[in-house]
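Methods — Computational structure assignment.
A single polypeptide chain was analysed. Its primary sequence is given first, followed by the predicted tertiary structure written as C-alpha cells.
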Amino acid sequence: MIPALREVDEVQALYLAFLRALTEAGFRGDTSPSYASRTVLATDNSIYQVLPQAVIYPRDTGDLQLLAELADREEFHTVVLSPRGGGTGTNGQSLTDGLVVDLSRHMNRILEIDAEQRWVKVQAGVVKDQLNAALQPHGLFFAPELSTSDRATIGGMINTDASGQGSCVYGKTRDHVLELATVLLGGELWRSQPIDGETLQRASARGDRVGEAHRVCAAIARDKADLIARKFPQLNRCLTGYDLAHLGTGRDGEHFDLNSVLCGSEGSLGFVAEAKLRVLRIPKCVALVNLKYDHFRDALRDTESLMRAGPTSIETVDSKVLQLAMEDIVWTSVSEYFAGDKGRVKGINLVEYTAASEEELDLTLKQFTSGVDALLGQAGKSIGYSIARGHAEVDKIWAMRKRAVGLLGNVHGEKRPIPFVEDTCVPPEHLADFIGEFRAVLDEMGLDYGMFGHVDAGVLHVRPAIDMKDPAQAALIRPITDKVVALVQKYGGLLWGEHGKGVRAEYAPEFFGELYPELQRIKAAFDPRNQLNPGKVATPSIASGLLKIDAVPTRGERDRQIPAQVWDGYSEGVHCNGNGACFNWDPDSAMCPSYKATRERIHSPKGRASLMREWLRLLSNRGVDAAEASRKFREQSFFVGLPGRIKHSLARARGEYDFNHEVNAAMQGCLGCKSCTGQCPIKVDVPEFRAKFLELYYSRYLRPLRDYFVGALEFTMPQLARLPQLYNWPMKLAPVRRLLERGLGLVDSPMLARKRLTKSMSELGVPLASHACLDSLGPAQRERAVIIVQDAFTSYFDAEMVADLLHLLKRLDFFPLVAPFHANGKPLHVHGFLRQFERVALANSAMLKKLAESGIPLVGVDPSMTIVYRSEYRKVMGDQAPKVQLLQEWLAGHSQHLVQQRHRVRQTRFQLLPHCSEQTNARDSLGDWHSVFAALGLELTTERLGCCGMAGTYGHETAHKETSRAIFQQSWAPRLNGETDQLLASGFSCRCQAHRFAGIKLRHPLQGLLAQLHK
C-alpha cells in the first residue's frame, strides 16, 4: 500500500506557518492542508494538474481581509493565493501550487433582492442557477447563460467575464455588474462602481493600494485611448482579462469603471467577495427551432443568414456531440424533437426566439419558418426542423446542449476530446472559413474532434481527441495551439472567446502587443509581488514570467505512471475529466447527495475519482499492482495476512499518517446510490471503484464489525423472521440500541415485519415458483404470469407491502408467483466483499436463470436491489446476467390488459416520489409508471427529487446519521410538509427515511393502486 510517512519541506513549512498565523489572527473559516483536499483541488476541467499547498475556505469578507492582510506581511511575501469557485475552468485558471481560496463552501448567500429596481446582491460563492432559482418567483433572471450554470459561481463568472448562450442580446457578465466588493492585497475592501471624474480624482488621491490602482488605470485609459481602440477587436466577446476598452471614455475622464479590469482578471488583482448585479425580466414566451443539416459546414455557413432574422441566440452542435447525446440519459427528454434523424443529421442549429406574448411569438416564428421552408433541402440549407415551445420544453433541449461539454469526454478508448484551444472567437461572418482551416489542421494530424458553440457570437468550442498519457500525443498541444493562434489572428479574432486565459495567457503579448506593458502596470499596482494567481493574464514585471502551456504539469504526466492493466481495472473512475457535473447545486437533483450535504469536494464523484487516480499512482510507484493485489487477496483465506492487518490497524489507532485513510474517509462518505453512474456525462461509477478500493484497503487493515454484520444480513434475516419478536423486542430496548450504536456503529434499525410473507402468500393463494409449479401452468395462466424476485429488505422488513403487491396483481387478473429467496449480494458489494459478492451473484443467477427458462418474466420489487442485476451482476457475468425487470417496466408492457381493468378503479391523482437510483439509472422507467397509471385512468405526476439520504444501510450507520438527515432535509422534507395522502414512494429506503425523520408512512405506488380498486 502507500507509505505511512509524510515529510514536510521548507515550502510546506512556510505555508503551514501561514495557516497557523491565520488561525491565530481570528480566521473563522476552515483550512485544510490534507493531501486528499490538495489532490482533489489540483485539477479543474483543463488538461493540467497542479498540487496546491493547502485549501482555505473563508467564512465571510472579514476572513478574506485577514487573509489578504497576512499575505502582505514581509515574512509571507512569497505566499501565493488563488481564488476558486466552481472549479470548472478549462484553462487552469484557478490552479496553483500555493493556497487555493475556495469561496464556494461558505460565501454562498444571496444577500438582497430588489425586484422593483431589478438588482441583486450576492456573495461570490453563489451558484448561477441558485441565484436564478431565487429570482424566478420575482419574474427575474441573471442573464449570462453557461453550460455549467448549475455549479459555476458568480465569483467565477466575474473573474472570467463569462458569457455563453444569448450573449449577442444579453452581453457578458461585466455588462450586468453594477458594483463589486473586492478585497485587495493588504486587506483593503473596495466597493467599485462606475464613477464620474470628480469621484475618480478623490479615489486617485488616496495613499493606499486603492489610490495607486485608480491612478494607474486612469492614466492608461487617458493616455492610451487611441491604441486601445485599435487593439481591441469589435467582437461580441472582446478580450477577456483587464478589459481596457471599457475602463473609461478616454481623455475627458467623465466616466470611469474599475470593474472593467476586475471582471476577467481571474483573481490576479484581488478577491471578489460580493457583487451587485443587474437582473432582467424573464421572457414570457420562448420557442426553439431545431434546424437539421446533413453537413456540419452547412450549419456553420447558414448562421449568417439566420442571424439576419434577429433571434435571441443561435447555438450549434456537430454530429459527434449529437451521437453522444443519443447514448446519454438526457436523450429521453429530447428525442421527440429529433425522431428518425439518427445517422443522417450531421449538425444542428438551435435558434431561439423570445417574446412578450404568444401572439408576438407566433408572428416571429411564422416569419422565420416561412423563410426556412422556402429554402428547405436546397444546397447548404436545412434538411428539416422541429419546434419546441414554452420554457419547460425549450429548457430540455438546452440541457442537452449544456451536457455537450461533459459528453465529449465520454468516448471509447484512451483518446479523449480535451480543451486547450476550445473557445476561439472570430467575426461570425468568417466562422465557417475559420473552422474549415481549423479542421484542416486537426485532420492533417489525424485527430478526431467534437464541436459545439455559440455561432451567433463567432465562438466555437473545438476539442481534439488526444491521449495525454502518451508523451508523443501530449507533445501536440504546442504545435496545434500555435497554429490555431495564427489562424485566429488571420481572421481578426481571439484565442480566448469566453473561458478566460489561465495558462494560455502565454499568448497575451502576441494579441495585446504594445499594450501588454500597460497590463503589467495594472498588475503591479494591485499585486506588486505577484502573489495573486501568478502567471495568469499578466505579470507585474518581465522578471515574473507568464505560465507556458507546455511547462505546467498535466494530468497525463501523472496518469502515465499507472500501468495499463491497473488503469483498465479501474476504468470506472480514471477517465473523469473534471467537468464538475457532480458539483450540481440543485438540491432536487439526485447527483451526489454526499457533496450537497457536506460541500466537501472530496465527497463528490470528481473528488473520489481524483483520489482513486492518485492512490493508484502512488501504489504503482511502490511497485504494487492494485488489480493483481486484489486478485491475490481474493484467493487467500481470512487468516492469511491477519497479523499484518492487526499491526497496521494499531498504527492507525496511534494516529500514524497514511494517505490510505484519507482515501478511505472519502469512500466511506459515498451512499452508493449510483446517481453518478447515470448522471455523470463520463459515467464515473463511484460505487464500483469504491468497492474495489475497500477490498484492497481491508487487505491491509481490520474491518469494523459493522461491515460483517451488514454483509450477513441477507443470510440471517430468513432465520430471524421465523420469530420476529426475538429481533424486534431487543431492538426497542435502550441498552441494546446503545450497544449497537457504540459497538457496531448502527442506529435506528428497522423492525422485521410481524407477519411473514410466506403466510400472506398462503392466504392469497400465491405459489412459490418451482419447476413443478411452472410446468403445471396452463396457456391462459402463463400469458399473465409473473415471477416476483424477492429481496431481503422488502420481503422481511416490508412484507406487508409485498403482500399488497401480490394482492393487487391477483385482483388485476395476473398470475403472480414468488421466486425462492436467495441473497442478492448488494450489501456485500457496497462494503467491498467482492469475492463473496461474486459467489452470491453466481448462485442467485443460476436459480433465476432456471426460472427464466420457463419464459415467464422475472420482476424485482425494490428499485435499488433490482438495478443490481443490470449493473453489478453484468460486470461479473456480462450478458449471462439474469434479466430482472422493474415492476413498472413489466406492467407497462401489459397496458392493453390494464385498460380493460379501468372500470374497476376509482379515479384520483397521485404524486410519485421516485427512488434516486431509479430516476438516474432507469430513467425511462419513470415514464412506465405514468403509462401504468394512465392505463388505469389515474393521473400521476412525478416529483423532481434528490436523494432521501438512506441508500441501503448508509443512513443507519452512526457516523453518517447527521449527513443522512441533512440530505433528507434538502429535498425530501419540503415535499412532506403538506398533504401526504396522495404521495407514493417506490423505494424501500425512501419510505423508511420518511417515517424515520418525518413520521410519515408513505405507500408504494402499487399500494396506492390497490387502495383505488373497487371491492
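Note: The radius of gyration is 30 Å.
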